[in-house]
């Protein structure tokens, strides 16, 4: 069998631990955005525990210095706790729970949102958990194809889906350039979203301190 260069896909292909269910193109996206955090003393949070296999994958991938938390509403998920993996029960659409969770866990370096996939869950989780992502941290939302599925509250260009919500955040990232502050004013998202990366079914947000952009000229005029 040929060697698989991506360590996450290699883990998945050789997995003899708990069950993992992933779209195969996710592994390259994960590794592209998560590789800088490997081996560091970080806090990793995953919403959506399922059978606990991905928590074991993150534990192996990020290394012994990482704290791994899984968040789910299903009490059966408590059975997947192990060394360096903690499971916390709660409803990710419950903003009171999310605020309490922020206090309990503290600053987060990597957040993977793979929870219930409904629009209310995705938006509430982003709004409540973004403030505790560290500068330099990353927030990844996956399975965003549900923004197009009616069963999850989605639909093409339907107001209130996470995809439409993220389009507004793209505008917000550019608010420094707005000439109409009544419609698009600089806010906390403008000052803290360094980049938004859009893939099939995944959006990744980079956190950081963002100042108003500047431009300069150097060199000699040609005419």
Précis, in short:
The protein has 223 residues and is of the alpha/beta class.
Break the fold down into its secondary structure elements and pairings:
Layout: H1 7-13, H2 26-34, E1 43-47, H3 53-62, E2 67-72, E3 85-89, H4 95-105, E4 108-113, H5 119-129, E5 133-141, H6 162-173, H7 188-192, E6 193-199, E7 202-207
Parallel strand pairs: 1-2, 1-4, 2-3, 4-5
Antiparallel strand pairs: 5-7, 6-7
Helix pairs in contact: 4-5
| CATH homologous group name | Vaccinia Virus protein VP39
Residue share in helix? 25-40%
Strand order within the widest sheet? 3-2-1-4-5-7-6
Proportion of beta-strand residues: 15-25%
Written account of the structure:
It is a single chain. The chain has seven helices and seven strands; from the N terminus they run ααβαββαβαβααββ. The N and C termini lie far apart (61 Å). It has helices at 7-13, 26-34, 53-62, 95-105, 119-129, 162-173, 188-192; strands spanning 43-47, 67-72, 85-89, 108-113, 133-141, 193-199, 202-207. A seven-stranded mixed beta sheet has the order 3-2-1-4-5-7-6, sandwiched between helices. α4 (95-105) packs parallel to α5. The protein has 223 residues and is an alpha/beta fold. The chain is globular, with a radius of gyration of 19 Å. The protein has one domain (11-206): Vaccinia Virus protein VP39 (Rossmann fold), CATH 3.40.50.
């Amino acid at each position: 069998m040929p060697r698989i260069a991506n360590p996450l896909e290699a883990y998945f292909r050789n997995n003899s631990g708990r069950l993992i269910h992933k779209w195969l193109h996710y592994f390259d996206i994960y590794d592209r955005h998560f590789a800088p955090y490997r081996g560091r003393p970080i806090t990793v949070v995953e919403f959506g525990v399922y059978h606990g296999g991905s928590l074991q994958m993150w534990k192996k991938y990020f290394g012994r210095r990482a704290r791994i938390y899984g968040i789910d509403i299903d009490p059966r998920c408590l059975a997947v706790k192990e060394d360096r993996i903690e499971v916390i029960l709660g409803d990710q659409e419950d903003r009171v729970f999310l605020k309490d969770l922020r206090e309990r866990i503290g600053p987060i370096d990597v957040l993977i949102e793979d929870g219930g996939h409904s629009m209310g869950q995705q938006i509430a989780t982003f709004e409540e958990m973004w403030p505790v992502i560290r500068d330099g941290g990353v927030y990844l939302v996956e399975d965003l194809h549900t923004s197009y599925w009616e069963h999850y509250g989605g639909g093409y260009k339907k107001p209130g889906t996470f995809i439409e919500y993220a389009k507004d955040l793209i505008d917000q990232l550019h608010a420094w350039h707005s000439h109409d502050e009544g419609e698009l004013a600089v806010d906390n998202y403008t000052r803290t979203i360094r980049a938004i990366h859009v893939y099939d079914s995944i959006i990744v947000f980079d956190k950081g301190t963002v100042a108003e952009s500047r431009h300069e000229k150097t060199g000699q005029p040609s005419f």
